[in-house]
Amino acid sequence: MTRQLLTLLGATGTIGCNTLEVVALHPERYGVFALTAHRNVEKLAQQCRRFAPRVAVVDHAADAERLRLLLTVPGTPLETEILYGPDALCQVAAAPEAAIVMAAIVGAAGLAPTLAAARAGKRILLANKEALVMSGALLMDAVRASGAALLPVDSEHNAVFQSLPHHYSRQLAIAGVSRITLTASGGPFLHRALSDLARVTPEEACKHPNWVMGRKISVDSATMMNKGLELIEACWLFEAQPEQVDIVIHPESIVHSMVAYVDGSVIAQLGCPDMRTPIAYALAFPERIASGVPALDLPAVGALHFQALDLQRFPAVSLAYRAIRTGGTAPAILNAANEVAVAAFLEGHMRFDQIPALIARVMDALSPEPGDTLAGVLEADARSRACAAALIREQALP
Ligand code: NAD
Ligand code: MG
After folding, report:
1. Domains in the chain and their CATH numbers?
2. 210 Cα to the center of ligand 2, angstroms
3. CB 217 less than 6 A from any atom of ligand 1
């Protein structure tokens, strides 16, 4: 088979590092065209030495210069071209040399390069759920128009994708599907007294029981806004109505999600909680390749538990149902307010339990627009950020 080259957006993050570990197991199948990072120049330099990408991208000119110094070996020409800034991200996402683009930037910053990859017809491995939440209609239209492939890396959506028929063409009814069930671990505060949530620290919120992840998604898992974003992600990826997607708590994170069919069958995907499995599946689909993940030992796991989701404990999920039902730019408003709230919580400017309350206030204050242009989506994102920041500044929080 011909060797394929990858652009890895967000190479220095948790998903980025896991992707490089899978790629390293298959040097005959995959090589690296471009690696991108925001600020972590040291880690990016290590990755460049190991994977020798043709291009590396950072955010600022000063970091590009630091990377150049770190990679310079006296007497030898630099193997890697170094670029910087948001336009460079779009450039490597659409570059003809790269057949595959891993979208693993966290948050709204990933939207433009993911859209660029979609317009260029790439095989996109989508971890950056915020991009799809913000601009579901635009991104799905771009994928359809260019013939790009959008393969979910998020473990739940990867599990749903694996549990749907291979010939699935985004029509649940024709495939005989009655429901999609996303599983949720419940995060670190599943059993914490509700009155204690006001005192939760960023360190506690980032300590997920089953997964090692970046700080933003870790806080999202603790509020369960992560599951809310995943509900919206599932509606776009599988053309489902919000009523067709439900959420069940499964604290062991072994069943990654499931699909129920009209005949009563339920097909689920199981595995150790390790992102290298969905990454390997999305990389090689429809083939299967080794991921480095150990085999699942069910007797060692012992028991699998399931319980209903308590929306009073996790109001963020209700906000996400409200946003996807409202449509237009409502999910972009939800996402941006959440990004601002999570950053403010991590910096000590607001309490954990104020996160969903702040998002609700922003959603009440702003009226959604159609959301069918990139300018419209970015405008909604900016309005929501400004509104959330003002509420935090004025301490106008419950
Ligand atoms: P992370 O914080 O570990 O890494 C984020 C990456 O994005 C880093 O490489 C960083 O340099 C880059 N980045 C951050 N801000 C940027 C900006 N403004 N411009 C350019 N690059 C920027 O996050 P992660 O845990 O790897 O998650 C990445 C994405 O994958 C998120 O959207 C998350 O929701 C999704 N995801 C993660 C997991 C997981 O297990 N970690 C699971 C499912 C989905
Ligand atoms: Mg997930």
Report:
1. 4-152 (3.40.50.720), 154-309 (no CATH), 327-398 (1.10.1740.10)
2. 12
3. yes
pLDDT 10s digits, 14-70: 999 999 999 999 999 999 999 999 999 999 999 999 999 999 999 999 999 999 999
pLDDT the model gives residue 169: 73
106 Cβ inside 6 Å of ligand 1: yes
Q: Nearest C-alpha to atom 31 of ligand 1 is from which residue?
A: 106
Report percent pLDDT > 90 for the chain: 93
Ligand 1 pocket test, candidate residues 106, 211, 219, most atoms within 8 A of CB: 106
Convert the pLDDT of each residue in 315-344 to its tens digit.
999 999 999 999 999 999 999 999 999 999
Indicate which atom in ligand 1 lies nearest the CA of residue 213.
Answer: 41
Cβ 213 under 6 angstroms from ligand 1:
yes
| pLDDT the model gives residue 156 | 98
Residue 101: alpha-carbon gap to chain centroid: 14
